[in-house]
Each structure stands twice: as structure tokens, then as C-alpha cells.
Amino acid sequence: MPWTSNLARFVAVYAMLYAAFGIMSPFLPEFLRQRGLTATEIGAVIALGTVARLMTGPIAGRFADQYRSWRGVLFGCTVGAGLAALLYLPGAGFGWLLAVALIQAAALAPLPPLADAMAVSASRNQASRFEYGWVRGSGSAAFIVGLLAAGQLAGRLGTDVVIWGNAILLGFSAIFVRALPNIAVATDADKGKPHPGAIRTLLRTGRVDTRQPCIA
Fold this sequence. Notes:
- By secondary structure, the protein is mainly alpha-helical.
- It has one domain: Up-down Bundle (Growth Hormone, Chain: A).
- It has helices at about 5-25, 30-35, 40-65, 70-85, 95-110, 110-125, 130-155, 160-175, 190, 200-205.
- Helix 1 (about 5-25) packs antiparallel against helix 8 and helix 4 runs antiparallel to helix 6 (about 110-125).
- The longest helix has 29 residues, at about 40-65.
- The radius of gyration is 19 Å and the shape is globular.
């Protein structure tokens, strides 16, 4: 698989990105516990980080669509997430660790959807057609490898190693992002102006009949 192919480039990005997720996400609560946070404070950090992702992900996506800079936004957010990870290391106390978690969560939120949009679009391009499943599968495999490696390293070297690993892998991912084509799926601007009342319409939708069977 030559590096000049878009498949190889996306596989490299996904491998680094999802290995970074695998190293960090399962061990962050234990890292926070060792830094002195209580169970309630750890729960607050995780919950508020989720809220930050929900808020910033759509904003970053809209910005990327508006300025047609999907690769630029993906690169910037990857670099920001990697640098934010390093801020965990000198920190202690609920306030500092919460602030770092929110910063990194905000930077991480756009990464999977932007990477997916770019990969799916590139896979359908006539000049560089490839199977998107290979790309997504490489990410899933990398997550598992990162998880297993982090478990071994954290047991021997302490949980600080997962922070370093997360930052380093995100850094490599950012480097590989620079080689990606700046391509993504058609945006609302390409199809016409978005309907501003779409969310209100959804909320006004009648109550779902829960007696009907739900097929997952």
C-alpha cells in the first residue's frame, strides 16, 4: 500500500487517532483519582467533558463547512488536543484538571466526525476510490492495541504514561493529517441554505408510540 495513496494516508491517521483514544479514555478516571479527585469530582469531570463535546463538535463542523477547510480544522483540533493532554501532567486539584479536561474534550469532539466525512468522501472519489471499511477497521484495531498497551505500561510505569502516549499519538496523527486531501461531503451551502427551524420542528414532533416494537 504506497504512501501516495489516500487509503494509506487515512489508515495512518485513523491508526494514530484511535490508538490515542484507546490509551487515554479507559485510564483517565484512574489518573484523576491518583491526582486526588474524589469519585464525585471524577464523575463531574467526565460528565462536563461530554457536554463540552456536544457543544463544540457541531460548531467546529459548521466552521469547517463554511470555510471549506476540513483538513485545516482537523489538523488544528488534533494539535490542540495533543497539547491539552500535556496540561494534565503538571496539574493537581479539581479546578485545574476540570479546565484541562474541558479544553481537551472541546478539541477532541470534531476529530471522529471530520475524519469520517473526509474518509468517506475520498473513498467515493473516482481518482482515489477505496474501501472505507479498511480505514474504519484500522481505527478499531488501533483502539484495541492502544488499550492493551496502555494497560501493560500503566501497570508498570504509572498512569502518567497514558497521558504521554495520548499526546504523542495525537501529535503523529496531526502530522499525517497534513498529507490528507482537503475533501469532504457536500455541505448545506452546496445544497441550499439550511432550514433554521429544523430543530424546532423535530422537538414539535408528536410523541412516539412506545407500544410499537423498536428495531435496532
